[in-house]
């Protein structure tokens, strides 16, 4: 058997992120992969940060300073956006799996993505202005 | 003839035996209203007799001619050159993904056919109404005594499997056409089929990229069918929860009805 | 005891059916095909399982072959057939005038027909031309070309036949006496050449039989005659619709899956490997097709394609043998032993062609074995691939 099993699983999975010649549905698929990886990474970071707290008040102050730097705030916006995208997209997929609206999944995706973008923007504006 | 000719460069994937694959280029004069497969057949007839490719019916009923044209899965016998390139343009022709390459553009469809047999997909369908999706139903009024027999819509071309990102990363995944086949056969009361579908490599492996539905030339809508199968599988599980889990009991209950 | 070995060149309908028959009769069979199974004419037919009605007036020998084989195929390979029947319909006076001959012809060829009123015909097929004047039902059907061929190939394989696809016959191997003892082939998947020897070579290359036989200096009177077909993206009829008249251009509309196919025309060519779809022919054909099913005008073309009939042209007697088939033992026709050619016929008569050929092969090789293909159900076409794994 040539072609199918020769490549490693990782390089095969890398093809997930290639949107060339694919449709809007793949954008949804890719966004869900990326946000899932992003959120998992964030969770990991989050736990490390929490671990820092246990090291005493000084560490905690230093930590707060970093967290308020613009880069971190921007990262926070990304996390929120990822949460919205992944969550809303997940609702679409869950509904589809119960046989609801699978025929209209493209339209549903576009509507939910728009909602996710709008919510993220509102959040971004608020977080940068307060 | 009436339409002016175009010059199109066919970039064709080549592979012979164990030699490394490469691309060959052929510049062809074509009519934009010819099909991509016509161009490929001409390359074989007049330029390179060693070119291997699958084809038979030339009108979208056999499912042999699936390939990737500029990256996208196409049934090349019904894909107009006009729709995929322009005068002076390029057509990059590659074999389908996720199938072993026999040579050049020809792939081994064995996996798909084996799995279609596994899910008991019927090549002919006597319940024609069910086989045709509402939006794809023939224009003619449908009579009462509609007992004609139809060949199934799925032409087993494999395009959906080539386009599916999950089939690419998990070769064990049954794949869209196969799950659609199980859906058409029906899982009700079919313990074995239910088990196959309700498994790691069955409906739950799908991650909703819906590329299968996008590339299917036959309007089988595998994406929708997989979702509908999930609904059915969940329904079956619920039923079992309340009826007790032994399939034997269910069998006798069905039988006594 | 080793089995007698036969090489079959060509895996169109004729080749695969012959492989099935010979494998059942205990031969060691190797099929060499330069493309995929059914990549020649066979894959590209309309796919009408002929009742014989089309030939009942002009060519009764073919008509009888068709109706007999039609009934057999329904029985042995139902999984690739839409057995929905057909209609012959009259649209104008000249069609009506043909009706009498048609009825006589069908009776003579035991083709079961039933006369319908125009009203009944329209009830059965609402999309027919409302101007229909009369109609007859016939037991036509539709088949999927590739899958019909694969079913025979799968069954042949089960009985030991080997299929070498993408393997082109380059030369016939000829011994000192001018007799054929094997073939020299080119495997296009590996780009290698080899020689295969056998007790007998069967030339089943359809329209290409003349070219192949000429390698041994033998002659086959073949007249390759292509025709154009067009597929549409809707299924406006559920049965095969024929024009009640002598066979002509665009006089068949048939359903297949969710499509409709209109056929066909007839012209002559010299280069067989690539015959272009001629636009003018498509146009004429559509105009004629619309006379049967006017709705065609409003549906979209899904594909236009063509295929080349292997018609047997006037032999030495000058008598044209229309649509029937013929098996040539080149020992008798050209004094060349080891080569048998089978051609002509129709997809519908593939099994009968194979039976005839296998009879000739058995007789030549002194093998006593009867034909059983009329009764043996064929395997699922999928088995052809299943046996790979
Ligand atoms: C337009 C049209 C419509 C038709 N419609 C119908 C219909 O509706 N119903 C019906 O019953 N019949 C129909 N027919 C008739 C029927 O299709 C043919 O009679 C039949 O397909 C012939 O099959 P075959 O195996 O003899 O030839 P082919 O299918 O042509 O097989 C010959 C094979 O030999 C191979 N070959 C050639 N040279 C070599 C070589 N050097 N080495 C190896 N292999 C080689 C070719 O690749 C090819 O696959 C139609 C024919 C035409 C033209
Ligand atoms: S479901 Fe559609 S794309 Fe997939 S094999 Fe069947 S016809 Fe082809
Ligand atoms: S050649 Fe049969 S589907 Fe394209």
Describe the overall structure.
In chain A, 77% of the residues lie in helices and 0% in strands. Chain A has helices spanning 9-14, 24-53, 57-67, 70-97, 105-129. The radius of gyration of chain A is 19 Å and the shape is globular. The N and C termini of chain A lie far apart (60 Å). Chain B folds into 2 domains: 6-107, Ubiquitin-like (UB roll); 110-256, Fumarate Reductase Iron-sulfur Protein, Chain B, domain 2. In chain B, the strands form 3 sheets. A 5-stranded mixed sheet of chain B has the order 2-1-5-3-4. A two-stranded antiparallel sheet of chain B has the order 6-7. In chain B, helix 7 (176-185) packs across helix 10 (222-243). Chain B is elongated and about 70 Å long. In chain C, helix 1 packs parallel to helix 5 and helix 1 packs across helix 9 (350-365). Helices cover 29% and strands 28% of the residues of chain C. Chain C is elongated, with a radius of gyration of 21 Å. In chain C, the strands form 4 sheets. An 8-stranded mixed sheet of chain C has the order 6-7-5-15-16-17-14-18. Chain C has 389 residues and is an alpha+beta fold. Chain C is built from 10 helices and 20 strands. The model of chain C is unreliable at 315-321 (pLDDT under 50). Chains in contact: A-B, B-C. The A-B interface holds A 1-5, 9, 12-13, 15-16, 20-23, 25-26, 28-29, 32, 92-93, 96-99, 102-103, 105-106 and B 68, 70-72, 98-101, 107, 163, 165, 168-169, 171, 207-211, 213-214, 221, 223-224, 227-228, 230-232, 234. Bound molecules: flavin-adenine dinucleotide (FAD), iron/sulfur cluster and FE2/S2 (inorganic) cluster (FES). The site of FE2/S2 (inorganic) cluster (FES) has 12 residues of chain B, from loops.
């Amino acid at each position: 058997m040539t072609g199918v099993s020769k490549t490693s699983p990782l390089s095969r999975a890398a093809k997930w992120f290639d949107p060339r010649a694919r449709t809007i549905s793949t954008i949804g698929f890719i966004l869900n992969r990326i946000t899932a990886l992003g959120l998992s990474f964030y969770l990991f970071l989050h736990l490390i940060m929490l671990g820092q707290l246990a090291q005493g008040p000084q560490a905690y102050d230093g930590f707060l300073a970093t967290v308020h730097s613009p880069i971190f705030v921007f990262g926070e916006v990304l996390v929120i956006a990822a949460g919205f995208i992944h969550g809303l997209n997940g609702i679409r997929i869950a509904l589809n799996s119960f046989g609801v609206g699978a025929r209209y999944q493209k339209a549903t995706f576009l509507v939910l993505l728009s909602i996710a973008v709008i919510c993220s923007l509102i959040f971004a504006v608020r977080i940068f202005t307060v | 003839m009436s339409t002016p000719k175009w010059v199109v460069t066919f970039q064709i994937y080549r592979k012979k035996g164990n030699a490394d694959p490469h691309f060959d280029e052929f510049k062809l004069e074509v009519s934009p209203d010819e099909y991509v497969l016509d161009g490929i057949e001409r390359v074989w007839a007049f330029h390179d007799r060693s070119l291997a490719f699958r084809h038979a019916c030339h009108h979208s009923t056999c499912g042999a001619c699936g390939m990737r044209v500029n990256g996208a899965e196409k049934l090349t016998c019904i894909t107009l050159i006009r729709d995929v390139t322009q005068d002076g343009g390029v057509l990059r022709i590659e074999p389908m993904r996720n199938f072993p390459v026999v040579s050049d553009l020809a792939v081994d469809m064995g996996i798909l056919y084996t799995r279609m047999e596994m899910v008991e997909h019927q090549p002919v369908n006597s319940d024609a109404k069910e086989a045709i999706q509402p939006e794809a139903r023939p224009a003619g009024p449908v009579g009462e005594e509609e007992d004609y027999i139809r060949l199934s819509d799925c032409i087993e071309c494999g395009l959906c499997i080539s386009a599916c990102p999950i089939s690419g990363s998990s070769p064990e995944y049954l794949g869209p056409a196969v799950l659609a086949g199980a859906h058409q056969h029906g899982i009700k009361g079919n313990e074995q089929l239910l088990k196959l579908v309700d498994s790691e490599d069955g409906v739950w492996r799908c991650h909703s990229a819906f590329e299968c539905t996008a590339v299917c030339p036959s309007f089988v809508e595998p994406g929708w069918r997989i979702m509908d199968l999930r609904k059915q599988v969940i329904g079956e599980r619920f039923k079992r929860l309340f009826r007790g889990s032994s399939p034997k009991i269910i069998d006798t209950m069905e039988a006594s009805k | 005891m080793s089995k007698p070995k036969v090489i079959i060149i060509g895996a169109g309908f004729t080749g695969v059916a012959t492989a099935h028959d010979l494998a059942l009769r205990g031969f060691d069979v190797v099929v060499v095909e330069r493309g995929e199974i059914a990549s020649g004419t066979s894959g590209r037919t309309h796919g009408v399982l002929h009742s014989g009605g089309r030939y009942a007036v002009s060519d009764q020998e073919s008509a009888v072959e068709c109706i007999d084989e039609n009934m057999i195929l329904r029985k042995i390979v139902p999984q690739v057939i839409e057995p929905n029947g057909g209609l012959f319909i009259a649209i104008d006076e000249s069609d009506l005038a043909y009706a009498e001959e048609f009825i006589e012809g069908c009776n003579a060829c035991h083709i079961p027909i039933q006369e319908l009123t125009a009203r009944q015909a329209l009830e059965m097929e609402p999309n027919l031309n409302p101007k229909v004047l009369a109609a007859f039902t016939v037991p036509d059907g539709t088949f999927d070309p590739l899958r019909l061929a694969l079913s025979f190939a799968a069954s042949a394989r089960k009985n030991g036949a080997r299929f070498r696809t993408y393997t082109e016959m380059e030369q016939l191997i000829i011994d000192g006496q001018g007799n054929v003892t094997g073939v020299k082939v080119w495997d296009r998947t590996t780009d290698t050449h080899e020689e295969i020897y056998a007790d007998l070579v069967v030339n089943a290359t359809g329209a290409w039989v003349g070219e192949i036989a000429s390698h041994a200096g033998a002659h086959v009177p073949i007249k390759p005659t292509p025709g154009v077909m067009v597929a549409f993206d809707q299924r406006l009829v559920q049965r095969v619709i024929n024009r009640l008249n002598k066979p002509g251009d665009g006089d068949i509309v048939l359903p297949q899956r969710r499509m409709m196919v209109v056929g066909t025309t007839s012209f002559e060519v010299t280069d067989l490997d690539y015959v272009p779809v001629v636009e003018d022919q498509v146009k004429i054909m559509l105009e004629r097709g619309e006379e049967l099913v006017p709705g065609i005008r409003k549906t979209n073309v899904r594909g236009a394609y063509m295929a080349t009939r292997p018609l047997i042209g006037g032999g030495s007697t000058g008598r044209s043998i229309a649509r029937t088939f013929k098996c040539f033992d080149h020992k008798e026709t050209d004094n060349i032993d080891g080569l048998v050619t089978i051609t002509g016929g129709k997809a519908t008569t593939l099994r009968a062609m194979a039976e005839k050929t296998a009879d000739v092969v058995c007789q030549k090789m002194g093998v006593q074995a009867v034909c059983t293909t009329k009764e043996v159900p064929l395997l699922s076409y999928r088995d052809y691939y299943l046996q790979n794994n």
